[in-house]
Amino acid sequence: MKITRQKHAKKNMGFYKHNFQFREPFQVLVDGTFCHAALRNKIQIREQLPGYLGGAVQLCTTRCILKELESLGKALYGAKLIARSFQVRNCSHHKDPVSGSACLLSMLEEDNPHHFFIATQDQDLANKVKKKAGVPLLFIIQNTMVLDKPSPKSLAFVQMLQTSQLVPEHQKQSIVQLKEKEGLVKQEGEKRRKRKRAGGPNPLSCLKKKKKTQESQKPEKKKRRRKRIRVKTEAVQPVQKNEKE
């Protein structure tokens, strides 16, 4: 199981490196739910995550997440200690703190310019993260950390880039105009018309062959009848000569 998970992680990391320019050290934003799950399953995030992702990692959190863990009391005291050991990234909620999930979403902005990973066990937050292109998602399942496969939003974004190849719209219009001036569009239409005309005379050639076969069969029957008549006349003549004698 470990080998297959590492293969999937390597494949998914290659997708983000090639298409979204993720580079080491990988910045991972961790919330309180992920810290709590790691503590409960005896997972050492700082030691195990770099080997799983295949590179150096910077574990980060925000002030909003730390304040949220403090407000939850003794139940998440261990998770709070783990989160405090991470680097604290500045968010825009200095005066008015928000929930941990809302803070992480704001850190991603529109296109994740800082190339953050999101590590969470919050399913609602995970669903919102999947609606953004180019955001890797980490979670814990069966006592191990798992890098989720690229979301449909990320796959669609990469496919759009491959088809358009980052060509501006004004360049696309100029290419179409050049084709019309050179007559490339007309030549394609003429070739298609010639192909349709070439397939017409096949049924006519079949009808001509049938007429020739019918005419060739008629004279053969007449010749056979003439031969039979000649044989009868030759047999009668010698009999008449014998009677006169």
From TrEMBL:
InterPro entries associated with the record: Fcf1/UTP23 (IPR006984), PIN-like_dom_sf (IPR029060), UTP23_sensor (IPR057776)
Residue ranges with Basic residues bias: 220-230
CDD domains: PIN_Fcf1-Utp23-H
GO biological process, alphabetically ordered: rRNA processing
Region annotated Disordered, chain positions: 185-245
Main location: nucleus
Pfam families, sorted: Fcf1, UTP23_sensor
SUPFAM superfamilies: PIN domain-like (SSF88723)
Recorded GO CC terms: small-subunit processome
Domain UTP23 sensor motif region: 192-211
UniProt keyword terms in alphabetical order: Nucleus, Ribosome biogenesis, rRNA processing
Free-text function comment from the UniProt entry: Involved in rRNA-processing and ribosome biogenesis.
Record-stated family: Belongs to the UTP23/FCF1 family. UTP23 subfamily.
Protein name: rRNA-processing protein UTP23 homolog
Gene: Utp23
